């Protein structure tokens, strides 16, 4: 009877030959001791043309699976995917887990906030849902700022609520004492899974004091400290970098400024490997990773992110300066107009480097006046979303936040006379002319 062949043993040569093409994480280039800026690194960081036939730009890797160098390498990769070895797969495995386009994108996304690691998702809500599912258990409490994007409130309050998850909130502009009070109540109720922030808040543009939240968390929770997660879509990464102010994880709807052309949907998360590892494992399980084509499009968009956001911010400053003195405007919720010495101005000065290009416009009147204004616009498009090259305007109370109960909308300042505007990169004087003619018809 023939002796069965022995299983091949993993050798040092196998380990060397099995080294994947894109691991370990690429080092950030320096020249003469100078660390290059994010806008420069967006042009090539994390991609080696020699690995793709000399292509200047990364190709789109449209494949569902990747060939292993040998069986031992396949086992090691799956040890990372399944969590037996922390940090994720060592190499390319399967497109539900990773892929070249996604990994290059994640390498570049983390650079903007000097984050240790990053993950990308199929939408902003996919990012939020995956983060919540990776951290929350039945019976837990989530502490969050308010208001939140309506879908986020629905996910926390209604969907997770069905599984015994509770929530407590504090207003976006809360003082340290107000935050302490909510944190203490939450801590007394049992395990707190997460402190979830949105700053600026959607759609009121109210800022959260991340530093105060961090100080409160550290003072009140003496054992397990719940992670501080923040949705930074409205300002980041150019105008606010919350990791520097105490956040543990920063979330983005990459659909907005990162994508910037209103032609894709994606989400992102940046932070430390320790915080992101369980989220990566959850993403591997439920399949919320961004697809290769979208990742490739985002790589293109990141190259012009600073240019687009800077131009949009300059335009917004000019447009808001016109709107603030218009007789049919009640007030403009623009971060550049915060009252000196106010709580919001103090947060802005400590946390932000720019006022952004998305703001809340409160007209004199109610829904009728808001609708008349929106229907009269010619350059600005009536559509939800923000951060694109084109100017967009919408009515939160009747659109994005329609599902929020009426009384809660009033409590949060989401009134019928509120119009949310995201300024694009058009000519600022043309935009002013458009708003001027629309306001005449209100």
How does this model look, in words?
This protein has 442 residues and is an alpha/beta fold. The protein contains 15 helices and 14 strands. It has helices spanning 12-17, 38-41, 71-82, 100-111, 124-135, 150-159, 176-189, 210-220, 273-286, 292-302, 305-323, 343-351, 367-376, 406-412, 428-440; strands spanning 30-31, 34-35, 117-121, 141-146, 166-171, 192-198, 228-231, 249-253, 267-271, 329-333, 358-363, 381-382, 392-394, 418-422. The chain has a 7-stranded mixed β-sheet, sandwiched between helices. α8 (210-220) links the parallel β6 and β7 (228-231). The longest helix has 19 residues, at 305-323. The radius of gyration is 24 Å and the shape is globular. The model is unreliable at 1-21 (pLDDT under 50).
Ends apart, CA distance between termini: 94 Å
Largest sheet: 7 strands, mixed
- Count, helices: 15
Stretches where pLDDT is under 50 for at least 5 consecutive residues are 1-21
- Judged by helices, strands and strand pairing, the structural class is alpha/beta
Tell me the Rg in angstroms: 24 Å
Mean pLDDT, as a whole number?
A: 92
Fraction of residues in helix:
25-40%
H and E string: HEEHHHEHEHEHEHEEEHHHEHEHEEHEH
> What is the beta-strand fraction?
5-15%
Strand order of the largest sheet: 3-9-8-7-6-4-5
